[in-house]
Amino acid sequence: MRKKFLSMALACALSLSMAVPAVAAAPPSELEMAAAYVREHGIMTGDQNGNLNLDAGLNRAELAVLLTRLRNGTEELFANTGYYEQGCKFTDVPAWAKLFVGYCVRNNLVAGYDALRYGASDPVNPAAACTVILRVCGVADGEGSIWNYNTACSYAAGLGWIDESTAHANTITRGEMAVLIYRAQTGARPGVPPSTGDGFLSNGKPVTEENVLELLRQLEQDWPHGTVWGTHNTPGTHKNEVPSTAANRVMDVYWVSEYYGCSGYASMVSSLVFGDKANPGRKQDDLTEMRPGDIVFVVSPDGVVGHVVIALESPNQEGRFHYTDGNSGEIITWPSTEHPDIRSYSLTGFSGGRIPHHLEVWTRYPENVPFTGESVEAWPAISGS
Asked: Which residues contact 256 (CB under 8 A, 6 or more apart)?
C-alpha cells in the first residue's frame, strides 16, 4: 500500500512538472548585443580575464585604441610604426598608447588640447565620443559642415546613435561607447533589432531605390557642394577614410584610386550607402536599368577611366541622369537649382564634347531587388531643382 501511494504521488508530481510551461530565455539587452559586437570585431578585447568592464569610464588614451581598431588600422599601424610615432608629439601620452594616438592624429580623428597636451588620462565626454564616431563613419565636420563639436551629440542623437540621457552626461562609460559604436555600425536603434548584410543598407533599412535616395540626400548635407575633394596633391583635400571593402573591389577592376580623386569619392559614397562588405558590386549590362547609388565609370575606347561618378537617378527617355562626383574642379558637386552649371550624363556619352567615351555601370543592388523605373528624374523632384 505504501509503495502504491508513493508511486501515485510520484506520477502526480511528474505530471504537474510537465504541465508547467518552460520559461523562455529573455532576449539579450542592447548592451549585451553591443558588447558582443565590439568583442567579435576586436574593437574591445577586455582585461586579462576577458572582462570588458562596461561600467567603467573610458579615457582618451583608451579611446585612441578603440578608434584604431574600429578603422581596422592595427595592421597598418604596426607596419608603419615610425610614421605614427612621429604623429604623437604629446608629452602626456604613455608609451603603450603613443602609436594609437599617433594613428588617430594622422587620420584626423582626434586632436590635443595644445601642441604638447593630449589629456591621455582624461575621461571621454559624450561630445568627444560622438565627434570621433561621426568622423570614423565619414560624416565630415569642419568649415561648411552641418555639425561641429558643440552640436555633435544632438546630431548623433538625431541619427539614433546616442540616447539623450547619455548625451547630457558629463562622461561616457565603456558600455555607452560600445552601444554608440554598435548603433553607428549596424543601424540598430533602441528596441529595433539590427539588419545587416546583403539586402540591407548601412542604416539597417532594406535595399530599395527609395531608401538609397534617402541616404544620398543625407550625404548631400554631410558632404555639401563645394567641399574640397581632389587628388593627393590638392591642398586641404578630403579623402575616403571609411571602410570600403566591396566598393574598393570594384575600383580595383579599373585600377583607380580607392582614396583620392573622383574614384575615392565614389567609393566612399557607395560604402556609406550600401555598407563596407555587404552587397558586393556587379556589372550592370543594361544601362537603362541604372539606379540611384550605382557607380558609373566614364571609359575611353582604349579602356582608360576618365571619371567616376555616383548616379542619383535612373536615366530618362533621353538617356540622361544626374550624378554627384568628387574632384570636379577639386570639389564635390551635387546638382540643384543653386548650382545650375552641374551637368547630367547621357548613356550615349556625355556633355562636354567627349562622346567617344562610353559608360560602364556597377550596381550594389542585390539581384533579387528588381528595377522599378520609379527613380527616373527622381533627384530633381526630391531636391526641388
From this structure: 263, 305, 308
